[in-house]
Amino acid sequence: MKNEIEMINNMKTIVLFGATGATGQILLQKLINDDQIKKVITFTRKKLDDNDKIDQNILTDFSQLKTINVEADSVVTCLGTTLKKAGSIEAFEEIDRDLIFQIAEWTKKNQIKEFHTISSVGADAEASNYYLRVKGEMQELVKSVGIESTVFYQPSILKAGNREEFRLKESASQLFFQLISNLSPKFEKYAPVDVNEMSTFIHQNLFNNNHGITFYSSSEINSVSFLSQSEYFSKEKSTSFSLFLFGGVNTVLQSAIYSLSSSVFIKGISLPILTASALACIVGGVILLQIPQHIKSLQKELELGVPLIEALRVSKVIKTFNKLLTTELLTLVGGAILGFGFSNQFLQGIGLGAILSAFILLLIDTNLIANAKKI
Rounded distance, CA 293 to CA 308, Å? Predict the structure, then answer.
């Protein structure tokens, strides 16, 4: 009985802004499914599905907020837009800076001790980039309010697979930052963050004893992801990036050799190596980007633990590389026929290049299969 009373007394009331957005929707579900959460107070422009835990407030004009008083433990804002969606820099500033500042002041007025908001890596009030400048200005304004605990989440790019509209710039940025983040541990803060990981991290952090002003980067937010808990997937991620980088550099090098060389024999050697390098670059990049999606599909469908998900992934990888081994062996045979069965120098060069590239890929793939079988 005493424990039940303590549990009830420790239950939290959370105020959530942005409950209809990509991150906010997921966070809302986590909160209402959490037995430690007593109530979620939401402020939205449109009605949410009814739930006993949700205290809904429909606001067509957020200036109405100042007339509303609540009692809560924490305020979370998952608000954010894009310049395209906002229509102008001024409209973007109103949402991503001014509205969040207004909510922070309201939080202080209602004597709520914790304020959580999503900002961005590189946020700086002096930045020349309008997006980073606005995020930086927002941070400075929120800090000036003097809330007992203020938490800024600074992801690089937020990945949301269920957006209704396709955002080309965001997709290109995700690819760029995913690759950059693999260069060095120093760049892990630029790694894209899935909205599910973002909401999980915020949810967990609501139960920490936060004090003062705290910042969390992508590397810290991604620490809750399955990928960070699996040694095998971390190795596969690293290997895929190496393959992408090696293939990309060698593609540029072989393109230069093929273009600049006057020897048809050298051109012949360069052509299959160029082709193999381009394929290695594509395969490495595709694997790198598909790992999180494959993990998510396994978790969603089977709700498995780390070892079994690793085993399923290994099985898929081995099947794929066994097919590649067959292709590489056939390439060796074809290269030998071209290299030694014809007198044409260009064909001989192609044959030799095919043998070299197939042999190197055979060594790489055999090693990858051997390492995978150790899991």
Answer: 16
**pLDDT tens digits, residue range 339-351?**
899 999 999 999 9
Give the model confidence (pLDDT) of 135-155 as tens digits: 999 999 999 999 999 999 999
Say which amino acid occupies 134: V
Domains in the chain, CATH or no CATH each:
2-166+192-223 (3.40.50.720), 228-373 (no CATH)
Q: Let me know: does 295 contact 309? Beta carbons within 8 Å.
A: yes
Q: Which residues sit opposite 54 in a β-bridge?
A: 40
3-56 pLDDT tens trace: 444 445 578 999 999 999 999 999 999 999 999 999 999 999 889 998 999 999
Q: How many CA atoms lie within 13 A of 208 on its CB side?
A: 14
> For strand 74-77 and strand 54-58, is the pairing parallel, antiparallel, or unpaired?
unpaired
Reference 53, options 71, 72, 34; nearest CA is 34
Q: Per the structure block, which two tokens stand in for 298?
A: 């396994």
Q: Taking the chain, what is the end-to-end CA distance rounded to the nearest angstrom?
A: 47
Using an 8 Å Cβ cutoff, are 115 and 104 in contact? yes
Q: Residue 326 pLDDT more than 80?
A: yes
Helix (H) or strand (E) segment spanning residue 140 = helix 130-145
Is residue 58 within 8 A of residue 45, CB to CB? The reply is: yes
Structural contact between residues 357 and 328, judged by C-beta atoms closer than 8 angstroms: no
Question: What span, in angstroms and rounded, lies between the C-alpha atoms of 17 and 11?
Answer: 20
Cβ–Cβ under 8 Å, residues 104 and 141: yes
Comparing CA positions, the residue from 111, 112, 117, 114 lying closest to residue 98 is 117
- Asked whether the beta carbons of 74 and 151 are under 8 A apart, the reply is no
pLDDT tens, residue by residue, 327-372: 889 999 999 999 899 999 999 999 999 999 989 888 887 877 776 6
